[in-house]
């Protein structure tokens, strides 16, 4: 895997991935940034959130759980001195689906956190990472709309 980051101006950078995608990064105005893109440290959290969500959804799909939506909300704290690493990260899953089994959800989150999510395992070297979840039932109107399109 490779990545390339090209400085544009001030704090603006373009990150290019070997999969052919580009993302804009920028710093805060207080440091000369223009707020054109996410901060690099925010991207670390997004990467971890995407990694763990991917794992959890794949595990739940294999367990034949009828997930209709999944949102991952992450809150994090950083050290007050340099290097300002993440020290606390909390991952909250909001999983929506029909008759989801809480044991399957808990197992999927645990497997992601302890075995599969490389990003979380790396960040866990400096941060305490906690998880919780809530299970929601889908809105019946959405289910009706989905069945009408099939």
TrEMBL record:
SUPFAM superfamilies, alphabetized: OsmC-like
Descriptive protein name: OsmC family protein
NCBIfam families reported in the protein's UniProt record: PRK10738.1
Domain of life: Bacteria
Species the sequence originates in: Thiospirillum jenense
PANTHER family according to UniProt: PROTEIN YHFA
InterPro entries: KH_dom-like_a/b, OsmC/Ohr_fam, OsmC/Ohrsf
UniProt xrefs under Pfam families: OsmC
